[in-house]
Structure to design on (247 residues):
């Protein structure tokens, strides 16, 4: 039975990360905790299908993500499709020029379509590799990469960050013209 | 905050490494971590530990093999 204690302990240890991911996805504390609860129940029921030695965190994140999308479908809400999305770009103006407030960032993150938000969170914050993120989201590695980069560009647009010139039109123009960027 | 103003020419090229589109030094990358770390460090309500104990009582972990 030591194994069961181990599994329970592993689940307990994973909860803070699961809650953070659930919050990032749902943007709502109550829904996030419901998602985590549902994930723990499912994980417990399915524990025999977990391969010890493989990435438990990725396995749990997959369950949570599936639960999130299945709840969204049940609620009859269209899953946002970032390609077809026509949202007005709401600029968030930093309260202090040159300083990016965490609240501004949060608001900007909320404006991202779910698929982009989850990709940038998994890669940029949860510490997963592109391969792991692709597995969690059930898509190709290239899809994750392009979602992350679209998310990043979008955040930069919303937050009006001009200091990071690596993606800016100037940098691209410079490359196209073959001039040396230095 | 002594962020270099946009002059890429004086700051040198910011290279985008392939595996790292959110380089640790990018503002977005930093904020993302800050946002997430705050969520991760949030206190976990007891109900989750209680839930796991209930699950364990109701259905002890299956012996594997």
């Amino acid at each position: 039975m030591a194994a069961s204690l181990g599994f329970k302990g592993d689940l307990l240890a994973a909860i803070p990360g699961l809650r953070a991911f659930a919050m990032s996805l749902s943007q709502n504390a109550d829904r996030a905790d419901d998602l985590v609860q549902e994930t723990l129940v499912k994980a417990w029921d399915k524990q025999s299908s977990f391969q010890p030695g493989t990435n438990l965190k990725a396995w749990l994140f997959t369950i949570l993500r599936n639960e999130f999308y299945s709840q969204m479908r049940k609620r009859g809400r269209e899953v946002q499709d970032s390609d077809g999305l026509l949202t007005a770009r709401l600029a968030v103006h930093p309260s202090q020029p040159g300083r990016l407030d965490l609240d501004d960032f949060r608001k900007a993150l909320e404006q991202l379509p779910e698929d982009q938000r989850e990709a940038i969170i998994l890669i940029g914050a949860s510490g997963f590799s592109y391969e792991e993120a692709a597995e969690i989201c059930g898509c190709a590695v290239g899809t994750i990469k392009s979602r992350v980069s679209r998310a990043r560009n979008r955040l930069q647009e919303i937050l009006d960050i001009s200091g990071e010139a690596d993606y800016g039109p100037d940098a691209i123009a410079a490359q196209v013209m073959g001039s040396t960027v230095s | 905050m002594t962020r270099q103003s946009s002059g890429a020419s004086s700051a040198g090229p910011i290279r985008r490494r392939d595996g790292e589109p959110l380089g640790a030094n990018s503002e977005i990358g930093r904020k993302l971590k800050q946002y997430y770390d705050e969520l991760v460090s949030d206190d976990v309500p007891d109900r989750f530990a209680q839930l796991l104990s209930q699950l364990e009582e109701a259905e002890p972990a299956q012996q594997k093999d």
Chain B touches chain A through 46 residues (CB under 8 Å).
